[in-house]
Design goal:
The chain is α+β, with helices and mostly antiparallel strands and 200 residues long. The protein is built from 8 helices and 9 strands.
Amino acid sequence: MALPTDTQKLVDSPALERALAVASARHKHLCPRQVLGARCAIAATTILDLEVPRSDKRLLVIVETDGCFVDGVEAVTGVSVGGRTLRVEDYGKIAATFVDVKTELALRVAPQIDVRTRARDYAPEQTRRYFAMLHGYQRMPDDELLSFQWVNLSTPVAAIISRASARAICNKCGEEIINEREVEGDREVLCRSCAGEGYY
C-alpha cells in the first residue's frame, strides 16, 4: 500500500493539543518525546484511517521503547498494556508500529534521523536545544518530522493477541501460562523462563 505523497496535510493541530494536554498531565510538564509519540500516533492512525482514541481492540500498537514517547502514543490512541492493545518491544528506539487488527496493515513510524537539528528551523525563537525540539516537533510537517514504512509482522496478529481464555501449566515450575505463551518441547510444556528464554 502506498503512503500519501503529501503528508504535510495530515497534521491535526486540535488533536495534537488534546493529546499533549493528556500526556503532560502525567508528568506535570511536556517533553519532546511526548510530542514525538503524539505526532507518530496522529499521523499513523490518519494514514490507517482509524478514529482515535479507541475503546475497542481494532488498533494494536507495538512501541520500541518505554518512557515519555509511549505516553504520547497512549494519549492519542487510547491503547494500553492492560487492554492488551499496547506492546513494548524494547529496542531502545523512538518508534512504533501501528497495526489495524482487522486488515492486518502495519505501519512503522519513527522520527527522521536529523529531526533534532532541523527542529531549530521551526523554533528559531528558542535558544536552548531542548525547547527548540519541544516547540519544533509540534510545528514540523509530518514529512519532515517522521519516516513511514509499511511492515510485515514476524508474528501474526492473531498469535500476538492470542485468546484470553488460553491457559497451560509449565511442567517444570508448575506456574500457569496465559495467552498461549508456552513453549512446547519434545515431551513437555514449559514457560519461557524454564525454556531458557527468561529475562531473569
